[in-house]
Amino acid sequence: MGCVYYRIDDRLIHGQVITAWTRYYKLEKIIIVDDQAANDPIQQKIIKAVAPPNIAVEILSVKDGYEAIMNAEKAQISTLVLVKGPKALTALLDMGIDMKEVIIGGMQFVGGRKQVTRTVSVTPDEAEEFWKLHERGVELTIQLVPTDRRNPLTASLNKMFPKGGK
Amino acid sequence: MVGIVIVAHGELASCIRKTVNLFLKDAECIASVDLTESSGPDQFARDLEKAVREVDNGGGVLIMADLFGGTPANTAWKIISSIPNCMGITGVNLGMILEVLFQRDETKTLAELVKIAKDAGANGIMLLEPV
Fold it and tell me: For domain B3-122, which architecture applies?
């Protein structure tokens, strides 16, 4: 009875991308789980100003994010959990969140990352985090908008960062 | 004189910048920052901050972005909220930027130019009905 969806996109809420997913999932709420954003009042105001209308947006630390996600599940509120990378998802899983699938939209090519697909770049540590998530049974799919073809992350990850090696 | 930075997705910003040259060769204090597919908010923010510093000669800076809610505009909005004498507008189009450049001079303030940009951008949208 999943009503909570998970997405990695380091551009967070932006333009038509989030509108497309809002319609597709019939979202009522977006929870951004990111310690940095949770401490940045300017960014929070901007995020809320550009979010689709009639959507509740919360920007929380990992710890507070866990609470908010549990509440959304209990209340059956269609919710998108948005993070910038796999680390936050691992932390949520460790805290007991049940996560079946993560959609990866974009991870920018910057600082120590290698490009894995057009829009996804990862560091060796992030690659390892993804492999661990995969082992824990989380389906990892690259998809920018709902009409895009779904691409399993592991296939692309395997080329640059094969499982078991760095 | 107010400095101008154009920001947009893909190569739109640099293309607008180049096209402006057809109308106004050697326009000063104007820069563009592109947001490519593999790029992201952090690098883009650094590039935009650099461009803002480069075009600022004391008269303030106007950032002109493509889409409200898009990463270029969101990044610009954060910078506008963090430094003085910097304003922004979305929906940049050729008519908007040309009008700003034509009217830009030592007497126009940043606030005045923003209003000129908003009016010109909107006024340029006209239906072409068969005559």
Answer: 3-Layer(aba) Sandwich (3.40)
